[in-house]
Amino acid sequence: MFLICEKTQVKAIPNASPKVINYKTHGLNMAVNQENVSKVLSVLSHPLRRDILLHLSNNSEASFTDLLNFLKVDTGKLSFHLRALAPFIEQTPSGKYKLSRAGESAVRIIHDVEDWAEVADVQGKASSLPIASFQKRAVAFLIDFSLIFAITITISIIPSLIAPDLTTFLTNNISTSLFITVGLLWLYSTLLEGFNGQSIGKRILGLKVVRTDGKKMSYDHAAIRNFGKVLPLLPFDLLLGWRIKNPAFLRYFDKFAGTTVINLRI
To answer: Around Cβ 180, how many Cβ atoms within 10 Å?
Structure first.
């Protein structure tokens, strides 16, 4: 038995073979009015109108005076843009402005477009800036490693006031200290690179991790690429990266994660 939709009724067709349903033929015209789409995009194209919607999104509601003080414009200009935003805003009984349901959807669109713009910006920079050299990346790694190692030593010293035995254990077991350092290094690199593509070492040297597909860097991609920095894996990571023969992937885990490191200083 196969079910198809026809207007608002559901009909059963015995022994019918599967087929593609033409919704328009069955009375469900789902075509989008492109003229309305163009009008919406035209309204949202003005930066001041986007500022109004974002301000209302952040503050729930705002009076006309609040918007005047926030935007620093004259009353005539604000009134004009509020009229243009009529489908996206509504007034409360007290006369303040707030987002309508359409306005809430518009804010989500604005945030999405801002993300896409950031992706396009990163992609443009990645294509125009040189790939970071092995030497600069190595120096950045040593800076980060030294920083985390210093933190590890500090962690091993502080407990001496409370538990001397723990301090003796950490001091006499270099492998334990290195294990802690590697774990902290992975966590530190993942958090900072996932946030904005730069650890402290990379920021000092003007380097940045970016995704090769041009999308925004994520914590997942940062976590994967930084697995290769675990000391037992690092030599193999570099060797496999060298065999790839691609300057964008000096480490295999960069290729696996779809990331590379660019030089922001040219």
So the answer is: 18
Per-residue model confidence as pLDDT tens digits over 225-245? 998 887 678 888 888 888 888
Count the neighbouring beta carbons within 10 Å of the beta carbon of residue 220. 11
Any idea where the domains of the chain sit in the sequence?
1-31, 42-124, 130-263
Is pTM beyond 0.70 here? Answer: no
Burial tier of 251 (Cβ tally within 10 Å: 0-12, 13-18, 19+): buried
Beta bridge partners of 131: 262
In whole angstroms, give the CA distance from residue 218 to residue 115.
Answer: 13
**Residue 63 CB partners (closer than 8 Å, separation 6+):** 95, 96, 97
- Cα–Cα–Cα angle for 35, 113, 111, rounded to 5 degrees: 115
Per-residue pLDDT tens over the stretch 98-134: 999 999 999 998 988 887 776 666 556 555 668 899 9
CA distance 89 to 61: 10
Class of domain 42-124: mainly alpha
**Cα–Cα dist 149/174, whole Å:** 11
